[in-house]
Amino acid sequence: MTEEVINQPPPLTGGNAWRGDPLLIQLAERFSDPVRKELDGLGRFVLTQEAQDLARLANVETPKLRTHDRQGRRIDLVEFHPAYHALLRRSVAIGLHSSVWENGDTEIGRRHQVRAARFYLTAELETGHLCPITMTSASLAALMGNPKLFREWAPRVTTRKYDQSQKPPVEKTGLTLGMGMTEKQGGTDVRANLTKAERAGSSGFYRLTGHKWFMSAPMSDAFLVLGQAPEGLSCFLVPRILGDGTGNGFRFQRLKDKLGNRSNASSEVEFENAIAEMVGEPGEGIKTIMDMVTLTRLDCAIASSAIMRAGLAEAVNHARHRQVFGTPLIDQPIMQRVLADMALDVAAATALSFRLARSFDEAASDRGEAAFARAMTPVVKYWVCKLAPALLYEAMECLGGNGYVEEGPLARYYREAPVNAIWEGSGNVMALDVLRVLGRAPALFEDVLSGIDRDLGANGRGTISVLRAAMQVASTDEGSARILTEQLALSAAAAELRRLGAGRIADAFVETRLAGQWRTTYGMIDSRHDARMIIDTLYPPTN
């Protein structure tokens, strides 16, 4: 009798993460048929038991650092479980690291949005292995600052072949790129970097000596690294293995014991006369990496939206199948309110993240989209990534003790949740970036406000006045930057839900977020909004 399992929900496997997500299907309705067919296959894969086991194993069997071989030779290798390599192999094969740089006919005009959909579905499965994927894709933007290096490296990066072998880059079938920016004494303040870059004769190469406090995916084939050149802080491309097969002065000190993101190694490293080539102009290192940073921030938002979606899907699945006092948990009014309230935030975060991806696609031909991409990237990254920890905790609480144990995925999602808010610019950095744009190019925000006003329609008339007032305050009060940033995010998310025709879901978000009271927990929507409709629309029952 004690071994009979009753009143436990079935695992959320065997379905299709693409077909079960009406909002994602709507966001992709203008994609080509081949792309939609591919997304259907990817959605089916991420909910297979095989894929779920790969995600679990990659995080349980964490990376191991081997500094020396058995004879005492320095090797500086990080070993990963085969599950990690399997995940990376599949993500490389579908072009998550390269597709925005390719010329495929099926994605013309929507490369960032199509990649965002693939990235979103994959992040619902496992996000740690996506760190090298993100860095590889984004690093190509920085490499464009050196046309010679871009011509040499881009064709090898965009092969859609994953090659984990320890060989010189010229001998490999596919490459990944990483980055090393932060140091012990500086963190976000990269201008305080101490790594030195000295000219190596008249060859145009440099030698780097110094350290990096966080360098993730340390088995990447080359890294973009900031160092102090004679002309000032500059950006360099540093291969890990030289053409003759010898190491390039990388000395890994240890791997970080991180809260989450455990499948992905993050290292402390010292450089000893590492050979490097400059990317971009001398002394313009920060300017050189900014295009790269912009792309990584988009990925942070997409991944956070996806983790929230996956976590809430677990909570809804549990509530539909769990009986409490003889009634399905999802039929309890207070649980409905909690789940519906969470669903509004997940839908808004997803819509806003894809809105940002659309602006990347259309920036070259549309002034308003270019303004949105520049002004709103830090806004979107700030708000979406900060939603994730609190929302995933609430999803975990919906399962009670079943959500708190490591056997299920929610514990991993929760540990993963803070990373995107911290990496690639923490909350204050994002808010200050918003103020920087406001101070230097206020006209960009005029274009953004015009678009928000248009998409919100009559119901959002007072919103623009509130945003203008917040901008006025922030122009003289730096400490109010977070207030402005969050108001911009909420307004833009509401506008995008309206533009998508989300009906009563958009209404509920507008009334509870733009016109609601200050709140710190979920479950605060009232009976005017149909909570069950919101849940069933965004998370359709499968049986």
Could you provide a short overview of the structure?
With 543 residues, this protein is of the alpha+beta class.
Provide structural commentary.
The structure is a single chain. The chain has 543 residues and is an alpha+beta fold. The protein has helices spanning 22-27, 33-46, 49-60, 82-93, 111-125, 130-143, 147-157, 285-321, 333-362, 367-399, 401-404, 409-416, 419-422, 427-440, 442-456, 461-474, 481-499, 503-514, 531-538, and strands at 64-68, 74-79, 177-180, 196-199, 205-216, 222-229, 232-239, 250-255, 266-279, 323-324, 327-328. Strand 4 (196-199) and strand 5 (205-216) form a beta hairpin. Helix 2 (33-46) runs parallel beside helix 5. The radius of gyration is 24 Å and the shape is globular. The model has no long low-confidence stretch (mean pLDDT 95).
Fraction in helix: 40-55%
* Distance between the first and last residues' Cα: 28 Å
- What is the β-strand count? 11
Largest sheet: 7 strands, mixed
In DSSP terms (H or I, runs of 4 or more residues), the helix count works out at 19
Note the beta-strand portion: 5-15%
Overall structural class, as computed from helix and strand content, comes to alpha+beta
> Tell me, what's the shape?
globular
Order of helices and strands: HHHEEHHHHEEEEEEEHEEHHHHHHHHHHH
Multimerization status:
single chain
Rg, Cα atoms, Å: 24 Å
Mean pLDDT figure: 95
Q: Can you tell me the residue ranges where pLDDT is under 50 for at least 5 consecutive residues?
A: none
